Amino acid sequence: MFYKKGEPVIYKGKNCIIETERYTARFLDSQDYEMIANGMGEYAGSYGNAYNLYCPEEGHSYRKVACRYVKSLKEHLDSLKKNPKEGCVRHGA
């Protein structure tokens, strides 16, 4: 699912707002850094879509968030209906 700038979404269980339209980003893992260190940086990484998000609860922005980690509010509510314990917060533990 693709989101538009200004649309509310859920990321890491927090309410966020899409700051930018979807864009292509290069993602690196530990093997990619090893390739870069050994002079094969042009082959390192994988490309995918990403968003920049703003979280008003924290007053902080998240950059280059892969699309697979962003949920719409509807998807989040549907998942809570299927598994209600997922949305529970444990206090005092």
Can you tell me about this structure?
This protein is α+β, with helices and mostly antiparallel strands. It is 19% helix and 35% strand. The protein has helices at residues 30-37, 73-82, and strands at 8-11, 14-18, 23-27, 46-55, 60-66, 71-72. Strands 1, 2, 3, 4, 5 and 6 form a six-stranded antiparallel β-sheet that branches. The protein is elongated and about 50 Å long. Residues 89-93 have low confidence and may be disordered.
Helix content: 10-25%
Gross morphology is elongated
Number of domains: 1
For the largest beta-sheet, the strand count, sense and barrel status come to: 6 strands, antiparallel
Could you name the ranges where pLDDT drops below 50 across 5 or more consecutive residues? 89-93
H/E topology pattern: EEEHEEEH
Sum up the structure in keywords.
6 strands; 93 residues; 6-stranded antiparallel beta sheet; disordered C terminus; alpha+beta
Produce a short descriptive summary:
This protein is an alpha+beta fold. The chain has one domain (8-87).
Chain-wise SSE layout:
Elements (H helix, E strand, L loop, with lengths): L7 E4 L2 E5 L4 E5 L2 H8 L8 E10 L4 E7 L4 E2 H10 L11
Antiparallel strand pairs: 1-2, 1-6, 2-4, 3-4, 4-5
